[in-house]
Protein backbone atom coordinates (compact mmCIF):
# COMPACT_ATOMS: atom_id res chain seq x y z
CA UNK A 1 0.00 0.00 0.00
CA UNK A 2 1.39 3.34 -1.02
CA UNK A 3 0.77 6.21 1.34
CA UNK A 4 -0.37 9.45 -0.25
CA UNK A 5 -0.44 12.72 1.63
CA UNK A 6 -3.92 14.11 2.11
CA UNK A 7 -4.61 17.02 -0.20
CA UNK A 8 -4.98 20.27 1.64
CA UNK A 9 -8.40 21.86 1.33
CA UNK A 10 -8.33 25.27 -0.29
CA UNK A 11 -9.15 28.28 1.82
CA UNK A 12 -12.03 30.50 0.72
CA UNK A 13 -9.58 33.08 -0.64
CA UNK A 14 -7.62 30.43 -2.56
CA UNK A 15 -10.81 28.96 -4.06
CA UNK A 16 -11.95 32.40 -5.22
CA UNK A 17 -8.52 33.15 -6.73
CA UNK A 18 -8.56 29.81 -8.59
CA UNK A 19 -12.10 30.40 -9.92
CA UNK A 20 -11.15 33.87 -11.14
CA UNK A 21 -8.16 32.46 -12.97
CA UNK A 22 -10.14 29.69 -14.66
CA UNK A 23 -13.04 31.96 -15.66
CA UNK A 24 -10.98 34.94 -16.85
CA UNK A 25 -11.08 34.00 -20.59
CA UNK A 26 -14.89 33.96 -20.41
CA UNK A 27 -15.37 37.47 -18.99
CA UNK A 28 -15.18 40.80 -20.83
CA UNK A 29 -15.01 44.32 -19.43
CA UNK A 30 -14.29 43.06 -15.92
CA UNK A 31 -12.60 40.38 -13.89
CA UNK A 32 -14.91 37.44 -13.11
CA UNK A 33 -17.70 38.50 -10.76
CA UNK A 34 -19.66 35.28 -10.31
CA UNK A 35 -19.22 31.53 -10.54
CA UNK A 36 -22.00 29.03 -11.05
CA UNK A 37 -21.40 25.97 -8.89
CA UNK A 38 -23.27 22.68 -8.88
CA UNK A 39 -24.10 21.11 -5.53
CA UNK A 40 -25.87 17.80 -6.05
CA UNK A 41 -28.93 18.42 -8.21
CA UNK A 42 -28.93 22.17 -7.56
CA UNK A 43 -26.87 25.12 -8.74
CA UNK A 44 -25.78 28.18 -6.80
CA UNK A 45 -24.09 31.45 -7.75
CA UNK A 46 -21.04 32.39 -5.70
CA UNK A 47 -19.76 36.01 -5.75
CA UNK A 48 -16.10 36.39 -6.68
CA UNK A 49 -15.90 40.15 -6.27
CA UNK A 50 -17.10 42.49 -3.54
CA UNK A 51 -18.46 44.88 -6.19
CA UNK A 52 -21.35 42.50 -6.77
CA UNK A 53 -22.46 42.96 -3.15
CA UNK A 54 -22.04 46.71 -2.98
CA UNK A 55 -23.81 48.01 -6.10
CA UNK A 56 -27.08 47.70 -8.00
CA UNK A 57 -26.72 45.17 -10.82
CA UNK A 58 -28.90 44.21 -13.77
CA UNK A 59 -28.07 40.66 -14.84
CA UNK A 60 -29.58 39.71 -18.20
CA UNK A 61 -29.48 36.13 -19.48
CA UNK A 62 -29.64 35.56 -23.24
CA UNK A 63 -29.28 32.63 -25.62
CA UNK A 64 -26.63 33.96 -28.00
CA UNK A 65 -28.01 31.87 -30.88
CA UNK A 66 -31.71 32.71 -30.66
CA UNK A 67 -33.93 35.18 -32.52
CA UNK A 68 -35.35 36.67 -29.33
CA UNK A 69 -31.97 36.96 -27.68
CA UNK A 70 -30.67 39.24 -30.40
CA UNK A 71 -33.80 41.40 -30.32
CA UNK A 72 -33.44 41.80 -26.54
CA UNK A 73 -29.87 43.06 -26.92
CA UNK A 74 -31.19 46.27 -28.51
CA UNK A 75 -32.96 47.24 -25.27
CA UNK A 76 -30.03 46.21 -23.10
CA UNK A 77 -27.63 48.30 -25.17
CA UNK A 78 -29.91 51.35 -24.83
CA UNK A 79 -30.17 50.96 -21.03
CA UNK A 80 -26.43 50.67 -20.66
CA UNK A 81 -25.94 53.92 -22.57
CA UNK A 82 -28.65 55.65 -20.52
CA UNK A 83 -28.01 54.42 -17.00
CA UNK A 84 -24.48 53.05 -16.58
CA UNK A 85 -23.18 56.58 -16.02
CA UNK A 86 -25.78 57.01 -13.26
CA UNK A 87 -24.37 54.20 -11.16
CA UNK A 88 -26.22 51.09 -12.38
CA UNK A 89 -24.11 48.10 -13.40
CA UNK A 90 -25.02 45.84 -16.33
CA UNK A 91 -23.93 42.24 -16.75
CA UNK A 92 -24.91 40.33 -19.90
CA UNK A 93 -24.71 36.55 -19.53
CA UNK A 94 -24.49 34.79 -22.90
CA UNK A 95 -25.29 31.13 -23.29
CA UNK A 96 -23.89 29.30 -26.31
CA UNK A 97 -25.65 25.96 -26.94
CA UNK A 98 -22.78 25.20 -29.34
CA UNK A 99 -19.63 25.92 -27.29
CA UNK A 100 -17.38 26.16 -30.35
CA UNK A 101 -19.49 29.01 -31.71
CA UNK A 102 -18.00 31.17 -28.95
CA UNK A 103 -14.89 33.10 -29.93
CA UNK A 104 -13.48 35.89 -27.75
CA UNK A 105 -12.73 38.17 -30.72
CA UNK A 106 -16.33 37.83 -31.92
CA UNK A 107 -17.75 38.89 -28.55
CA UNK A 108 -15.41 41.88 -28.41
CA UNK A 109 -16.29 42.92 -31.98
CA UNK A 110 -20.04 42.39 -31.58
CA UNK A 111 -20.27 44.33 -28.31
CA UNK A 112 -17.58 46.97 -28.81
CA UNK A 113 -20.00 49.86 -28.23
CA UNK A 114 -21.56 48.26 -25.15
CA UNK A 115 -18.20 47.40 -23.56
CA UNK A 116 -17.08 51.00 -24.05
CA UNK A 117 -20.30 52.15 -22.32
CA UNK A 118 -19.47 50.01 -19.29
CA UNK A 119 -21.34 46.77 -19.89
CA UNK A 120 -19.80 43.59 -18.49
CA UNK A 121 -20.19 40.31 -20.37
CA UNK A 122 -19.88 36.72 -19.17
CA UNK A 123 -19.99 33.54 -21.23
CA UNK A 124 -21.92 30.81 -19.42
CA UNK A 125 -19.93 27.97 -20.96
CA UNK A 126 -21.59 25.15 -19.05
CA UNK A 127 -25.00 26.63 -18.20
CA UNK A 128 -24.27 26.78 -14.47
CA UNK A 129 -24.87 30.54 -14.11
CA UNK A 130 -28.21 30.34 -15.93
CA UNK A 131 -29.25 27.38 -13.80
CA UNK A 132 -28.24 29.17 -10.59
CA UNK A 133 -30.67 32.00 -11.40
CA UNK A 134 -33.43 29.71 -12.66
CA UNK A 135 -32.97 30.74 -16.28
CA UNK A 136 -33.42 28.71 -19.41
CA UNK A 137 -32.65 31.36 -22.02
CA UNK A 138 -34.04 30.29 -25.36
CA UNK A 139 -36.10 32.91 -27.18
CA UNK A 140 -36.92 35.05 -24.15
CA UNK A 141 -34.37 37.13 -22.27
CA UNK A 142 -34.58 37.24 -18.48
CA UNK A 143 -33.26 39.99 -16.20
CA UNK A 144 -32.48 39.64 -12.50
CA UNK A 145 -31.99 42.90 -10.59
CA UNK A 146 -29.68 42.67 -7.61
CA UNK A 147 -29.51 45.33 -4.91
CA UNK A 148 -26.49 44.96 -2.64
CA UNK A 149 -26.17 41.33 -3.69
CA UNK A 150 -29.81 40.41 -3.00
CA UNK A 151 -32.53 39.66 -5.54
CA UNK A 152 -34.77 42.70 -5.92
CA UNK A 153 -36.87 41.81 -8.98
CA UNK A 154 -37.03 39.54 -12.02
CA UNK A 155 -38.48 40.35 -15.44
CA UNK A 156 -39.21 38.25 -18.51
CA UNK A 157 -41.75 38.02 -21.32
CA UNK A 158 -43.30 40.41 -23.88
CA UNK A 159 -43.30 43.37 -21.42
CA UNK A 160 -39.69 42.72 -20.40
CA UNK A 161 -38.29 46.03 -21.83
CA UNK A 162 -40.88 48.29 -20.19
CA UNK A 163 -40.98 46.42 -16.86
CA UNK A 164 -37.21 46.30 -16.54
CA UNK A 165 -36.65 49.96 -17.37
CA UNK A 166 -39.43 50.97 -14.94
CA UNK A 167 -37.58 49.15 -12.15
CA UNK A 168 -34.27 50.75 -13.15
CA UNK A 169 -35.76 54.24 -12.94
CA UNK A 170 -37.40 53.40 -9.61
CA UNK A 171 -34.02 52.36 -8.20
CA UNK A 172 -32.37 55.56 -9.37
CA UNK A 173 -35.15 57.80 -8.00
CA UNK A 174 -35.10 56.09 -4.60
CA UNK A 175 -31.67 57.62 -4.19
CA UNK A 176 -32.42 60.91 -5.98
CA UNK A 177 -36.20 61.63 -6.29
CA UNK A 178 -35.61 64.64 -8.52
CA UNK A 179 -33.25 62.92 -10.94
CA UNK A 180 -34.16 63.89 -14.53
CA UNK A 181 -34.53 60.79 -16.69
CA UNK A 182 -35.56 60.14 -20.27
CA UNK A 183 -39.06 58.67 -20.81
CA UNK A 184 -39.31 54.92 -20.51
CA UNK A 185 -39.10 53.20 -23.88
CA UNK A 186 -42.66 51.94 -24.22
CA UNK A 187 -42.17 48.93 -26.42
CA UNK A 188 -42.86 45.24 -26.28
CA UNK A 189 -40.52 42.58 -27.53
CA UNK A 190 -41.97 41.24 -30.75
CA UNK A 191 -40.07 38.05 -30.24
CA UNK A 192 -39.55 35.71 -33.14
CA UNK A 193 -40.06 32.32 -31.56
CA UNK A 194 -37.90 29.42 -32.67
CA UNK A 195 -40.39 26.87 -33.95
CA UNK A 196 -37.74 24.27 -34.76
CA UNK A 197 -34.03 23.88 -35.33
CA UNK A 198 -31.73 21.48 -37.12
CA UNK A 199 -28.37 20.72 -35.53
CA UNK A 200 -25.74 19.41 -37.91
CA UNK A 201 -23.46 17.49 -35.53
CA UNK A 202 -23.54 13.74 -35.02
CA UNK A 203 -24.33 14.16 -31.31
CA UNK A 204 -27.69 15.76 -32.17
CA UNK A 205 -28.71 12.82 -34.37
CA UNK A 206 -31.30 15.06 -36.04
CA UNK A 207 -33.91 13.22 -38.09
CA UNK A 208 -34.34 16.30 -40.27
CA UNK A 209 -30.74 16.46 -41.49
CA UNK A 210 -28.78 14.15 -43.74
CA UNK A 211 -25.67 14.13 -45.91
CA UNK A 212 -25.93 12.97 -49.51
CA UNK A 213 -22.70 13.91 -51.32
CA UNK A 214 -23.98 12.92 -54.78
CA UNK A 215 -27.40 14.56 -54.54
CA UNK A 216 -28.32 17.47 -56.81
CA UNK A 217 -30.27 20.63 -56.09
CA UNK A 218 -33.30 18.97 -57.69
CA UNK A 219 -33.57 16.93 -54.48
CA UNK A 220 -34.85 20.06 -52.74
CA UNK A 221 -38.31 19.47 -54.18
CA UNK A 222 -38.51 16.13 -52.34
CA UNK A 223 -37.74 17.54 -48.88
CA UNK A 224 -40.54 17.88 -46.34
CA UNK A 225 -40.92 21.21 -44.49
CA UNK A 226 -38.14 21.54 -41.92
CA UNK A 227 -35.80 19.08 -43.61
CA UNK A 228 -32.22 19.99 -44.55
CA UNK A 229 -29.89 18.18 -46.95
CA UNK A 230 -26.14 18.74 -47.46
CA UNK A 231 -24.64 17.85 -50.84
CA UNK A 232 -20.99 17.73 -51.89
CA UNK A 233 -18.08 17.01 -49.57
CA UNK A 234 -18.59 17.70 -45.87
CA UNK A 235 -16.83 16.65 -42.67
CA UNK A 236 -19.30 15.87 -39.90
CA UNK A 237 -18.21 16.01 -36.26
CA UNK A 238 -19.99 15.86 -32.92
CA UNK A 239 -21.23 19.46 -32.92
CA UNK A 240 -20.72 20.74 -36.46
CA UNK A 241 -20.13 20.19 -40.16
CA UNK A 242 -17.48 21.86 -42.33
CA UNK A 243 -16.63 22.05 -46.01
CA UNK A 244 -13.80 23.13 -48.30
CA UNK A 245 -15.80 22.17 -51.38
CA UNK A 246 -17.06 25.10 -53.52
CA UNK A 247 -19.61 22.70 -55.05
CA UNK A 248 -21.13 21.89 -51.66
CA UNK A 249 -24.70 22.98 -51.04
CA UNK A 250 -27.16 23.14 -48.16
CA UNK A 251 -30.76 22.56 -49.33
CA UNK A 252 -33.48 23.77 -46.97
CA UNK A 253 -37.25 23.43 -47.10
CA UNK A 254 -37.93 26.29 -44.70
CA UNK A 255 -41.16 25.66 -42.73
CA UNK A 256 -41.56 29.21 -41.38
CA UNK A 257 -41.11 32.89 -42.30
CA UNK A 258 -37.82 33.35 -40.40
CA UNK A 259 -34.52 31.62 -41.09
CA UNK A 260 -31.13 31.87 -39.37
CA UNK A 261 -27.78 30.10 -39.47
CA UNK A 262 -25.34 29.50 -36.60
CA UNK A 263 -21.74 29.41 -37.87
CA UNK A 264 -18.23 29.60 -36.50
CA UNK A 265 -16.93 33.21 -36.51
CA UNK A 266 -13.96 34.16 -38.69
CA UNK A 267 -11.52 36.75 -37.32
CA UNK A 268 -9.30 37.84 -40.21
CA UNK A 269 -11.08 40.17 -42.62
CA UNK A 270 -9.39 38.75 -45.72
CA UNK A 271 -10.48 35.21 -44.80
CA UNK A 272 -14.19 35.79 -44.28
CA UNK A 273 -16.13 33.47 -46.59
CA UNK A 274 -19.25 34.38 -48.49
CA UNK A 275 -22.48 32.41 -48.33
CA UNK A 276 -24.69 32.78 -51.40
CA UNK A 277 -28.45 32.27 -51.15
CA UNK A 278 -30.99 31.33 -53.76
CA UNK A 279 -34.72 30.98 -53.25
CA UNK A 280 -36.62 28.80 -55.69
CA UNK A 281 -33.42 28.63 -57.75
CA UNK A 282 -33.10 32.43 -58.13
CA UNK A 283 -31.40 35.25 -56.19
CA UNK A 284 -33.49 36.28 -53.18
CA UNK A 285 -35.81 39.28 -53.46
CA UNK A 286 -34.55 42.33 -51.59
CA UNK A 287 -37.82 42.71 -49.68
CA UNK A 288 -36.93 39.52 -47.76
CA UNK A 289 -33.37 40.55 -46.90
CA UNK A 290 -32.29 40.22 -43.30
CA UNK A 291 -29.82 42.66 -41.71
CA UNK A 292 -26.72 40.88 -43.08
CA UNK A 293 -27.80 40.26 -46.68
CA UNK A 294 -26.38 42.14 -49.67
CA UNK A 295 -26.73 42.09 -53.43
CA UNK A 296 -23.25 41.98 -54.98
CA UNK A 297 -22.07 43.39 -58.31
CA UNK A 298 -22.53 40.02 -59.99
CA UNK A 299 -26.19 39.87 -59.03
CA UNK A 300 -25.80 37.25 -56.27
CA UNK A 301 -27.56 37.58 -52.94
CA UNK A 302 -25.16 36.70 -50.16
CA UNK A 303 -23.86 37.40 -46.68
CA UNK A 304 -20.38 37.04 -45.19
CA UNK A 305 -19.39 34.92 -42.21
CA UNK A 306 -17.36 37.38 -40.15
CA UNK A 307 -16.88 38.24 -36.50
CA UNK A 308 -20.32 36.96 -35.47
CA UNK A 309 -21.99 33.61 -34.94
CA UNK A 310 -25.71 34.22 -35.56
CA UNK A 311 -26.70 35.12 -39.11
CA UNK A 312 -30.25 36.05 -40.07
CA UNK A 313 -30.03 36.50 -43.85
CA UNK A 314 -33.73 36.19 -44.65
CA UNK A 315 -36.93 37.31 -42.95
CA UNK A 316 -40.69 37.40 -43.51
CA UNK A 317 -40.54 34.70 -46.18
CA UNK A 318 -43.99 33.90 -47.65
CA UNK A 319 -44.95 30.23 -48.12
CA UNK A 320 -44.03 30.27 -51.82
CA UNK A 321 -40.50 31.63 -51.14
CA UNK A 322 -39.03 29.03 -48.79
CA UNK A 323 -37.04 26.63 -50.99
CA UNK A 324 -33.54 27.77 -49.96
CA UNK A 325 -30.16 26.84 -51.43
CA UNK A 326 -26.97 27.88 -49.63
CA UNK A 327 -23.64 27.71 -51.47
CA UNK A 328 -20.10 28.49 -50.34
CA UNK A 329 -18.03 29.92 -53.22
CA UNK A 330 -14.98 30.77 -51.07
CA UNK A 331 -14.80 27.47 -49.18
CA UNK A 332 -11.75 26.19 -51.09
CA UNK A 333 -9.71 29.06 -49.64
CA UNK A 334 -11.54 29.34 -46.31
CA UNK A 335 -13.28 26.39 -44.65
CA UNK A 336 -16.91 27.04 -43.69
CA UNK A 337 -17.98 25.66 -40.29
CA UNK A 338 -21.71 25.39 -39.52
CA UNK A 339 -23.51 24.33 -36.33
CA UNK A 340 -27.23 24.61 -36.90
CA UNK A 341 -30.18 26.25 -38.61
CA UNK A 342 -32.99 28.01 -36.73
CA UNK A 343 -36.53 28.37 -38.06
CA UNK A 344 -38.61 31.16 -36.53
CA UNK A 345 -42.24 32.32 -36.45
Descriptive keywords:
31% strand; Glutaredoxin; six-stranded mixed beta sheet; globular; 19% helix; Jelly Rolls; 345 residues; alpha+beta
Secondary structure layout plus pairing:
Elements: H1 12-23, E1 27-28, E2 34-39, E3 42-47, H2 51-54, E4 56-63, H3 67-83, E5 89-95, H4 104-110, H5 112-116, E6 120-123, H6 128-132, E7 142-147, E8 150-156, H7 160-175, E9 194-199, E10 209-211, E11 228-231, E12 235-236, E13 241-243, E14 249-253, E15 258-263, E16 274-279, E17 282-283, E18 294-295, E19 301-304, E20 310-314, E21 323-327, E22 336-344
Parallel strand pairs: 4-5, 5-6, 10-11
Antiparallel strand pairs: 1-6, 2-3, 4-7, 7-8, 9-22, 11-14, 12-13, 13-22, 14-21, 15-20, 15-22, 16-17, 16-19, 16-21, 18-19
% residues in beta strands? 25-35%
- Mean pLDDT, to the nearest integer, reads 91
Low-confidence stretches: none
SSE class: alpha+beta
Question: Can you walk through the features of this model?
Answer:
- By secondary structure, this protein is α+β, with helices and mostly antiparallel strands.
- It has 7 helices and 22 strands.
- It has 2 domains: 24-175, Glutaredoxin, CATH 3.40.30; 194-344, Jelly Rolls (Sandwich).
- It is 19% helix and 31% strand.
- Strands 10, 11, 14, 16, 17, 18, 19 and 21 form an 8-stranded mixed beta sheet that branches. Strands 1-6-5-4-7-8 form a 6-stranded mixed beta sheet. Strands 9, 12, 13, 15, 20 and 22 form a 6-stranded antiparallel beta sheet that branches.
- The termini are far apart.
Q: Can you give me a brief rundown of this structure?
A:
With about 350 residues, this protein is of the alpha+beta class. Helices cover about 20% and strands about 30% of the residues. The model has no long low-confidence stretch (mean pLDDT about 90).
Amino acid sequence: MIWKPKERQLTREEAIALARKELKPLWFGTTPLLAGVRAGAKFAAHPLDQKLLERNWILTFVDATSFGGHEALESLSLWCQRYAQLGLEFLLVLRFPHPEAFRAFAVQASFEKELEAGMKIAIDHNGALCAAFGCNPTDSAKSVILVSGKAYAETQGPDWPRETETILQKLLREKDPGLPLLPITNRKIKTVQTVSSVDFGTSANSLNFRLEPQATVDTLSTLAPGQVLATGEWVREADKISTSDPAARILVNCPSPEFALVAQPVERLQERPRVAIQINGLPAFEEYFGPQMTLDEEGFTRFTIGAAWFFRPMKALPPNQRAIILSFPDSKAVKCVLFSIRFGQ
